[in-house]
TrEMBL record:
Keywords from the UniProt entry: Signal
Region feature (Disordered): 22-42
Biased composition (Low complexity): 22-31
Protein name listed in UniProt: Rds1 protein
Record organism: Roridomyces roridus
Amino acid sequence: MYHFATVLSTLLASSLPASLAAPGTPSSPSAQNTAPFTPAGGIGTAANATPPVYHPLSDFDFQSMNLALNQEWIELDLFHHALAQFSVEEFEAAGINADDRFLIEFMADQEVGHATMLTNILGPTAAKPCNYTYPFTTVRGFVDFCQKLTRFGESGVYGFLEHLDSRPSAELLLQSITTEARQQMIFRQFEGLFPMPIWFTPGITQSMAWTLLSPYIAHCPAENPHIVFQNFPALNITNNPSAIPLINSSLENSTLPAITHNRSIPLSKPGFQLDLTWEKPGKITGYDGLYTTNTSAGPAQFVAWISQLNTTYTPLFNISADGTSGSTLQPGDLIFGNGSAPLINGTLFIAITDNNTFVTPFNMSLLNTHIVAGPAMYQSG
Ligand SMILES: *[C@@H]1O[C@H](CO)[C@@H](O)[C@H](O)[C@H]1NC(C)=O
Ligand SMILES: *[C@@H]1O[C@H](CO)[C@@H](O)[C@H](O)[C@H]1NC(C)=O
Ligand SMILES: *[C@@H]1O[C@H](CO)[C@@H](O)[C@H](O)[C@H]1NC(C)=O
Ligand SMILES: *[C@@H]1O[C@H](CO)[C@@H](O)[C@H](O)[C@H]1NC(C)=O
Ligand SMILES: *[C@@H]1O[C@H](CO)[C@@H](O)[C@H](O)[C@H]1NC(C)=O
Ligand SMILES: *[C@@H]1O[C@H](CO)[C@@H](O)[C@H](O)[C@H]1NC(C)=O
Ligand SMILES: *[C@@H]1O[C@H](CO)[C@@H](O)[C@H](O)[C@H]1NC(C)=O
Ligand SMILES: *[C@@H]1O[C@H](CO)[C@@H](O)[C@H](O)[C@H]1NC(C)=O
Ligand SMILES: *[C@@H]1O[C@H](CO)[C@@H](O)[C@H](O)[C@H]1NC(C)=O
Ligand SMILES: *[C@@H]1O[C@H](CO)[C@@H](O)[C@H](O)[C@H]1NC(C)=O
Ligand SMILES: *[C@@H]1O[C@H](CO)[C@@H](O)[C@H](O)[C@H]1NC(C)=O
Ligand SMILES: *[C@@H]1O[C@H](CO)[C@@H](O)[C@H](O)[C@H]1NC(C)=O
């Protein structure tokens, strides 16, 4: 196991900004507190502060939250669709019992709530529900699709939440996305995966989230707002590890639904070779023929791994002459060095890039211009 005490003491000393290292130190000696028992600083907490308004304050806010609304609508449809598509016998054979099915139905109800909240924020021009196309034919395939879709839905919001102009709206969205995070974990449990093999959940940009979402939306009401984010060319991991096959045997191998399995046989390990194919730009994607994939990047050179707090790179090799296929190796980095968790675990994002540009969670959008294709969801654990 991880050596938390030693790891944490070294990590905290080395990685926290100096201003956070000494709790209780005022940020500025002249700062005045605004109310009793209220430390100086913070935004919107003073008794005479402007009352919060829960509306977009910019195009950035509207477009970002409208993208999130499209995500909520597909989740609502998806959960209902699967409950209607599969028989009780099919669910039971995958280890999903009546109580579990009620939980999925309740998740659909949560999506009604989330979509109502976002529609209230956005106003009358908010996106309405669409028609969707799904890639699964079995209960296991449905569960796997759900844990991936909710992962990019969740990460897609984490990527823009702290950049919204409207902090009151961000507060409400945060309270819905933490609920969605629980859905993601439950779908992993329904698939027999370790529920949360990561220390941090990554954020991705809106264009990355829209690239992952758009292939599953078929038709929308004509009045739905045009989504301005970029659709990158699609990336396929042709040998992506999969937990879809149902393994009903030992504890160490089982993929039966469970709160957790002690998985001693990980789906992938450092050094695993990923074989990748990706599209050239210019392909129609998304609903009603309205969107086209595009990239502003140069030739493919690296694979970006967006996981935990980090965007790390591995070189592409065996790149085909037409520049649309290649391979890379899963890195073995540990998030905070020796004694900490592996950077690569769980359901994460990889993309083809033209450079190994250093980005951190708050400036991830600077990666967009370097994306050749992707992201794709990599199933590491
Ligand atoms: C798993 O195997 C056991 C024993 O063979 C059987 O009783 C059970 O029904 C199986 N469960 C599933 C979900 O296949
Ligand atoms: C979705 O499909 C239904 C039934 O096939 C159809 O009635 C409806 O018009 C479609 N909606 C959109 C927005 O295309
Ligand atoms: C990705 O590659 C696999 C293996 O070649 C293939 O079965 C699958 O259809 C591909 N997926 C897409 C979306 O092209
Ligand atoms: C677990 O899976 C591995 C790899 O498929 C296999 O070699 C091993 O026998 C399995 N162990 C048990 C206890 O079923
Ligand atoms: C689960 O894995 C941990 C870490 O490898 C180990 O310490 C523990 O004994 C395992 N528990 C079971 C029930 O296998
Ligand atoms: C991923 O996490 C699981 C659960 O902690 C662990 O069993 C597995 O070994 C990890 N995978 C890697 C590649 O470290
Ligand atoms: C990509 O977008 C740019 C800027 O909007 C445009 O000029 C170009 O034609 C687009 N490329 C493709 C393949 O659609
Ligand atoms: C290199 O890629 C080609 C397909 O483009 C494939 O046939 C070949 O096996 C790959 N070589 C290696 C070493 O992966
Ligand atoms: C991952 O990101 C954290 C936070 O920025 C940083 O402290 C750590 O060094 C990074 N780890 C790796 C392996 O890049
Ligand atoms: C991490 O562990 C390896 C192997 O034990 C050792 O060689 C290396 O110096 C350690 N790195 C740090 C930063 O402690
Ligand atoms: C490529 O990435 C390297 C390393 O982060 C950086 O120094 C360089 O400026 C980048 N080049 C471009 C064209 O962004
Ligand atoms: C992103 O922010 C980090 C600091 O957190 C900085 O070192 C890096 O250069 C920035 N990346 C770009 C592409 O500007």
